[in-house]
Amino acid sequence: MFTGIVEERGEVVAVEQLADAARVTIAGPLVTSDAKQGDSISVNGVCLTVVEHGGGSFTADVMRETLVRSGLAGIAAGDAVNLERAAAVGQRFGGHIVQGHVDGTGELVSRSPSEHWDVVRFGLPANLARYVVEKGSITVDGVSLTVVEVGPDWFTVSLIPETLRATTLGLREPGDRVNLEVDVIAKYVEKLAGPHLAAEEGDRR
């Protein structure tokens, strides 16, 4: 589990394409400072397992399902990525519950810079729109953000200077693809309450 508070901006060192997967090596001195084989590290919001590490970098295998569902299919050597180690028991929980299981991808539609923050609009897949609400939480490329406005197929967030500096969101441009993870609590509520709401609707008819 993660919090969506990015610890460092790493860099992709190498990508090896395999038949139905990819092996990626990423430089991240902070997140690898105490890394062990089998540890989980979030890469642009995708939970990956460390299979090798050393010299300030780590290697992970990315299976086909993950490549299909996320933007990791398009990463290449030299790309910047957001990195976060799994949450430790007892630490302050600064973001929200993030699983590192990407629900889909969106597209950066526009950004409006101002003196103190950037307002950024992202395209939102139709199947995820019902989970996104104003002032709710969403994860974009592994960054925990608060939704400002939401429409039928879009949402906006405000990015403060620290977020722009410390994460890849400061580098993103219109047309760029981003990984999205909606609030897992909303999905559980829907699954648990859905049958009851449907039954009530049937009784009214």
Automatic annotation (TrEMBL):
InterPro entries: ATP_synth_asu-like_sf, Lumazine-bd, Lumazine-bd_dom, Riboflavin_synthase-like_b-brl. PROSITE patterns: LUMAZINE_BIND. It comes from the Bacteria. Gene3D superfamilies: 2.40.30.20. Residues 1-96, 97-193 form the Lumazine-binding domain. Pathway: Cofactor biosynthesis; riboflavin biosynthesis; riboflavin from 2-hydroxy-3-oxobutyl phosphate and 5-amino-6-(D-ribitylamino)uracil: step 2/2. It catalyses: 2 6,7-dimethyl-8-(1-D-ribityl)lumazine + H(+) = 5-amino-6-(D-ribitylamino)uracil + riboflavin. Lumazine-binding repeats lie at residues 1-96, 97-193. The keyword Transferase applies. GO terms for biological process: riboflavin biosynthetic process. It holds the Pfam family Lum_binding. One of its GO terms (molecular function) is riboflavin synthase activity. Its EC number is 2.5.1.9. The keyword Transferase applies. Keywords: Repeat, Riboflavin biosynthesis, Transferase. Homotrimer. Catalyzes the dismutation of two molecules of 6,7-dimethyl-8-ribityllumazine, resulting in the formation of riboflavin and 5-amino-6-(D-ribitylamino)uracil. PANTHER family: RIBOFLAVIN SYNTHASE, RIBOFLAVIN SYNTHASE ALPHA CHAIN. This is Riboflavin synthase. The lineage of its organism: Bacteria, Bacillati, Actinomycetota, Actinomycetes, Pseudonocardiales.
